[in-house]
Amino acid sequence: MKKLSITVLSVVLGMLLSSTLLAQNDLNVPLSNPDRPGKLIVNAVFADDVIIRAYNGREVSIILDGEDEADDDYYNRNGLRRISTSGAGLEITEDNNEVTVKTSPNSDDIELEILVPENFSVQMKVTHGDVYVKGVRGEHEIVATNGDIEMVEVRGSVIVNSVNGDIEVELLEVFDDTPMSFTCLNGDIEVGLPGNAKFTGKMKTDYGDVYTNFDMRIDRSASASEITRGEGRYTVTVNKWITGTVNGGGPEYLFKTLHGDIEIRKNS
Predict the structure, then answer these.
(1) What is the reported pLDDT for 235?
(2) pTM for this one?
(3) Beta strands 149-164 and 120-134: pairing type?
(4) What 3-state class would DSSP assign to 213?
(5) How many Cβ atoms from other residues are within 10 Å of residue 236's Cβ?
(6) How far apart (Å, rounded) are the C-alpha atoms in residues 185 and 166?
(7) Phi, psi (5° rounding) for residue 71?
(8) Helix, strand, or coil here: 12?
(9) What is the pLDDT of residue 268?
């Protein structure tokens, strides 16, 4: 087993970020076994965009780009001009085909693009920033607190969650007997699936509508989720879920948002 650890210290990136433009920096991470499936783990706090793309390569390539506004008047204080920032840290480790990328909490205005082999799973948590994933195959889990999630031409299984942001996922192939989940609080959900996908959809939006062009057999029965008694009152809280089976049914696919619409469509 081979383990590779690359740490780009805050001091180094701080020097790079102190100029008006952060020059593009490429970091290539060799894999322990390029012929086997891999996994990418990303933890980012502040980022304008985090982009993951599959490519015809045998290593993971990380492209860091961004801008710093150190010369803007906004950053002047008491007649003094700021000429350096606290910098941004980036830590990359590789262990048995698992590549982990972490940014420090003070990384801002950074664009992070990562190229991975096609047969790669993606696990990502981004606090502030949009997420874009294209062309990978595996078991994917994406969480964005404040940002949109877009996944195109992906294969496998997906679990995605966004608090404030839209979700758009295009799955060209799904794993059999594998549940999936697409949830957000404030945002629309749009999911494209293969026409022959077999699944049982569980759908709910409090302030929006649900749309599909699948031939879905719908069960609209409501389920009582909570019963409370007190002060002479008896209260039943009902969650109105829509359940539907496609192509005879299969693993559960959960679609849930509070404020927004849900679209479940066949890929054209």
Answers:
(1) 65
(2) 0.81
(3) parallel
(4) coil
(5) 9
(6) 9
(7) -90, -5
(8) helix
(9) 78
Distance CA 88, CA 16 (A): 9
Quote the DSSP letter at residue 31.
Answer: -
Q: Is 191 in a helix, a strand, or coil?
A: strand
String of DSSP letters for 136-183: -EEEEEEEEEES-EEEEEEEEEEEEEEEES-EEEEEEEE-TT--EEEE
> Is residue 14 classed as helix, strand or coil in its secondary structure?
helix
pLDDT tens-place string over residues 111-155? 889 999 999 999 999 998 999 999 999 999 999 999 999 999 999
CB 198 within 8 A of CB 250: yes
Confidence band of 265 (pLDDT split at 50, 70, 90) = very high
Three-state DSSP at 37 gives coil
189 close to 160: Cβ distance less than 8 angstroms: no
pLDDT-based confidence at residue 156 (cuts at 50, 70, 90): very high
Long-range contacts of 171-174 (CB under 8 A, 24+ apart): 171/197, 171/267, 172/267, 173/137, 174/199
DSSP 227: E
pLDDT-derived band at 104 (thresholds 50, 70, 90) equals confident
- Give the whole-angstrom CA distance, residue 106 versus residue 45: 8
Report pLDDT digits (tens) over 4-40: 554 443 333 333 333 333 344 688 999 999 999 999 9
DSSP assignment of 71-100, as one string?
A: TSGGG-BTTB---------EEEEEETTEEE
In the three-class reduction of DSSP (H, G, I as helix; E, B as strand; rest coil), residue 16 is classed as: helix
Task: Identify the residue whose tokens are 């979700």.
Answer: 167
Contact call for residues 26 and 72 (beta carbons, < 8 A): no
Tokens of 182: 């697409």
- Say yes or no to pLDDT of 221 above 80: no
Question: d(Cα 109, Cα 230) in Å, to the nearest integer?
Answer: 52
